[in-house]
Amino acid sequence: MDKVAWQIAILFAGAALGGPYLGGYEWLRFFTYFGSWGTIGIVLVSLGIAWLSFQLLGFCHRQQISSLYELYLHLFGEAFASSLSVITHLFLLAYVGVMLGQQSAHLIAGLSPIWVLLLSLIVTTSFLYKRWNWIAAGTGFCLVTGLLFFGLLFLLQPHVPIPDLGYQMNGNWLIHAVSFLALHFLLILAVLLPVSGRASKAHSLRLGLGVGTALVLFFLLLGQAVLLSHWHDIHASPLPMRLISVQLLPTGGAVFALLALIQGGVLSALLLYSLAHPVTERHQLQWTPLLLVMLLAVSLFAFLAIWLPWSVSVVASGATYCGLVLIGWFVWRRQT
């Protein structure tokens, strides 16, 4: 397995898990609420993301498409490409901001969320300053440490309950699974389009996507098992993994806070870099001013999430609809 395939696998897994995934909020909301149906949803989502990624990223590789704007230009035409690209970029920046804001509001007890947010932004800025190699390496580091941390929590479980399929037997689990797929596939496109469009071999792309899918499936199932074991304690928590860490480990709160700060900062840097790089090339803009504007936008949305927690759902819904429109239009165009 070559270096390019490994990089694609790591970036794919980091983007597909979303951010900040270490807290477990999105998994709790989209999957764990529905018990075993949520587990089925995880499997279907992983397969759906894999199929869409093979189809759409393979198409983009053949057409040498390396940005969301170029993809919109090809699928929707010049009349809609610019507007859709701006809307999508805005929602993705907002998503990064509200996720950081939500994490900062609950990460360290007794410390102001503003200070926690500043620490997260410092980590993000540091990785952006070091550019792509550090960001890719940081994403891999976060995946490895996250897997080890979740694995430790799993090993400390007395047992993992498997809810009966009669529990939460309704169509909501499928709706939430589709929503997760749309939102996180949009993150995958934003991160991988600049990479896949320039990949020299289609084999490296396919191999990377296959390994990345396996990583995502394993990670999601592991997180699901940990969350199900503590359902009654964490079902209303915005950071369920933090509560579990505090219960199971003597220094769980401190370890979780350190890992979450690094992970949130690295994934924020990954998405910001992936969004900024095509824009600088297309419009010949200077790198530093554009990143400063993006960081300012992320900061504003993060403050909004701290002051108005319901804004997290609004922003996530907007990004989800962008993903649904893109997926629906691509599938329709593929059939015609």
UniProtKB/TrEMBL annotation:
Q: Which UniProt keywords apply?
A: Membrane, Transmembrane, Transmembrane helix
User: Transmembrane residues, as ranges?
Assistant: 34-59, 71-95, 107-129, 134-154, 174-195, 207-231, 251-275, 287-308, 314-332
Task: Specify whether Transmembrane helix is a keyword of the entry.
Answer: yes
Q: Does the keyword Amino-acid biosynthesis apply?
A: no
Q: What is this protein called?
A: Transporter
